[in-house]
Amino acid sequence: MLSVTIDEIQRDPLKYLRQVEAGETIVIVQADEAIAELRPINRNKALRPFGLCAGEFTVPDDFDAPLPEGLLSAFEGK
Predict the structure, then answer these.
(1) Is 71 within the bounds of a domain?
(2) Which CATH number is 18's domain given?
(3) Which uninterrupted H or E stretch holds 49?
(4) What is the helix (H) or strand (E) element at residue 72, kind and residue range?
(5) What's the pTM?
(6) Whole-angstrom Cα distance, residue 72 to residue 27?
(7) Is the dihedral of CA 51, 55, 57, 61 positive or negative?
(8) Do the domain assignments include residue 48?
């Protein structure tokens, strides 16, 4: 992992973007404090299979029913 300052990035941004494309992770620092991280996007990420949790829980029939007045009042600070 490479640490660079904002000034270094501004001088030659393409240099650092090429390093990220090559797989390098770059931490951007300001006043010796990390403020951002540039890293390559993981394009090989496998998608989660559909129905992964099938049968593990049941959605109740009243899932989308209106909330009771007392609970709504509590959310609204009344």
Answers:
(1) no
(2) 3.40.1620
(3) none
(4) helix 69-75
(5) 0.54
(6) 45
(7) positive
(8) no
Q: What gap in Å lies between CA 14 and CA 23, rounded to an integer?
A: 14
CA 70 to CA 50: how far, in whole Å?
38
Spatial strand order of the sheet with 2-5 comes to: 2-5, 26-30, 33-38
The total number of structural domains that make up the chain: 1
SS3 at position 35: strand
Question: Does residue 59 contact residue 67 with C-beta atoms inside 8 Å?
Answer: no
Instruction: Show pLDDT as tens, one digit a residue, over the chain (78 residues).
Output: 899 999 999 999 999 999 999 999 999 999 999 999 999 998 777 888 888 888 898 889 999 999 899 999 998 888
The range of the structural domain enclosing residue 32 comes to 2-38
